[in-house]
Amino acid sequence: MSSSHITLTVSSIDHTRLERIASAGMRIRRAPPSVQFLAAELERARVVSPESLPPDVISMHSVFDIRDGIIARVRRAMLVYPGEEDAGSGRISVLSPLGAALIGLAEGQSFQWRSATGMLRTLQVIRVVHQPEPASATVDRHGHDDRGSAESGPTTHTIP
């Protein structure tokens, strides 16, 4: 999963909600390792107000591009709460091993994680396309109107 030397930044709203989810998951008799990993990541995260969250950081419901180091592909995805996930449309649950590793990462940061098949993979955050915090923002840091950009849906493409 992500390296402990990488600084994670999480909004206070996401931190509170995710702590509740992780805490509830830990009470399950056979909690998946990703719940424990999420709890550990939240403990070490730098918590900021939603307005202070840098625009290049993955928060809940962010749309982002990540590069897979093995197959040199970039895919667009969205980080979502449990129950909102849909692999076919690129909606990744924060309680999955990949989702727990993504929360709080910034553009340019790389991390290693173990896939469900046990394969060690390296992924890099290429770009945060849309970040819902602060909620009042209508223009992203690249100068594009981001209203509805989360609706555009995830895509996969090969890097030339």
Tags for this model:
single chain, 160 residues, alpha/beta, Chitinase A, domain 3, 6-stranded mixed beta sheet, two-stranded parallel sheet, 3 helices, 21% helix, 26% strand, globular, disordered C terminus
User: What best-fitting shape do the alpha-carbon axes yield?
Assistant: globular
The number of distinct β-strands equals 8
Distance between the termini: 27 Å
Element order, helices and strands?
EHHEEEEHEEE
Q: Can you put this structure into words, describing what you see?
A:
The chain contains 3 helices and 8 strands, in the order E-H-H-E-E-E-E-H-E-E-E. Strands 3, 4, 5, 6, 7 and 8 form a 6-stranded mixed β-sheet that branches. It has a single domain, classed as Roll (Chitinase A, domain 3). The radius of gyration is 15 Å and the shape is globular. Helix 1 (12-26) runs antiparallel to helix 2 (33-44). The chain is an alpha/beta fold. The model is unreliable at 136-160 (pLDDT under 50). The longest helix has 15 residues, at 12-26. It starts with 8 loop residues before the first strand and ends with a strand.
